Fold this sequence. Notes:
By secondary structure, the protein is of the alpha+beta class. Helix content is 38%, strand content 23%. The strands form three sheets. Strands 1, 2, 3, 6, 7, 8, 14, 15 and 16 form a nine-stranded mixed sheet that branches. Strands 9, 10, 11, 12, 13, 17 and 18 form a seven-stranded antiparallel sheet that branches.
Amino acid sequence: MKRNKDEALLSLEAGAGALYDLAERLRKGPELGFFEFETSKILEHELEGTGARVQSGIARTGIWAELGQAGAPAVVLLADMDALPTQGVQGGVAHSCGHHAQMAVMVSVFKALAEAGTLEKTGLRLVFAASPAEEYVDLERRLLLRESGEIVYLSGKQEMIRLGFFGGNSLVLKYHSMADSPGRAATVNGTLNGFMAKRAEFTGRAAHAGASPEKGINALSAASLALQAIHAQRDTFRDTDHIRVHPILTEGGTVVNSVPARAVIETYVRGASHEAVLDAAAKVDRSLRAGALALGASLCISNTPGYEAFHPSPALGEPLGLAARAVVSESAIDFHDVSSASDDIGDVACLVPTCQLGFSGFHGMIHSSDFLPAEPERAYLAPAEILLRTVLLLSEESGRMAKRIIGEFKPEFGVDAYLASLNSLFTGFLYSGEGEILGGS
């Protein structure tokens, strides 16, 4: 195994220039979720010559490439494909979350391991997976794709799970870029919040705002009261649940001299567990209904499932942590990061052992136009080396560690129960101006 280890690391280092070039090409071609067609072509081209069995067009644009015996336990190198609507950039779309780095790093690790033949005698499969549509944006187009039957769920990993990927005989490694910060180069075993999405439409009655406002029903005032009621709930959220509710008012009237007949609030409800999200969502619904009832406006609440909270596998975190220590000092690794952001990697982690490496090397603010690689060695090569070393550790002794982690894992859901849970969160409720429920699904 040492010979293969040396060969794989040497192959990765020798391909550093190609890694940097691939990352830059992907960065310059950002595409929104479920529409990453050119990105998919680039990745397919990169996989040529690896000998992998490649499936493409998964969930429209996703890729699944395998090496090793079919059906064997799998080590999955997972990368997101999509970019993000970003203010201040040409075209309005950019890889301001660093997904271009994920793709370039993971495919380069896969190619280095393939070239070295590392898994040939381990009894493991090696998988490179590219998943579309991690960012929960551009929902109007996604809902149209759902209505047309092209997708069922609104994220790429959810769709891939529905289509039979990320099965129980696998473990998953993921990587995410981070902005540079003092004293911290990497995170291992970090957690993320889950969330669900809500849209509340308040319908009142228009009237002349100066001559006869008493004849109107002010939908904007109903929405404003609802926002205040949501704010008043904050003391009821437990600190350990890490609840985040951050509504925006997307519509609140058309002209100043008309009583607003329609107002729309959109929000996520985030939390550290499935149960915490549902509890907070019920409080948000009460607040929305209170605002509508106070003004006598009717109300339609529409819910869509977001992502499950991400709880990484501690067992998989052990080899990832060992590999990280081989590249950066232990004092620069954060093993206790808690983030209130969300990622559909949480859905995968409910089913199979999963861990994510966070690594610095970027400057600027994530999700902003200035989130850019600071140094290619740290932004791309260092995390690639950590992930490659992790796979090598997992594959030692004929994949003994990988097989143990998979065998001992206790999933939060079975696939059928997970999909049923997702389906249950596509709901809508209509209330009259007197608060009476008129319909629901």
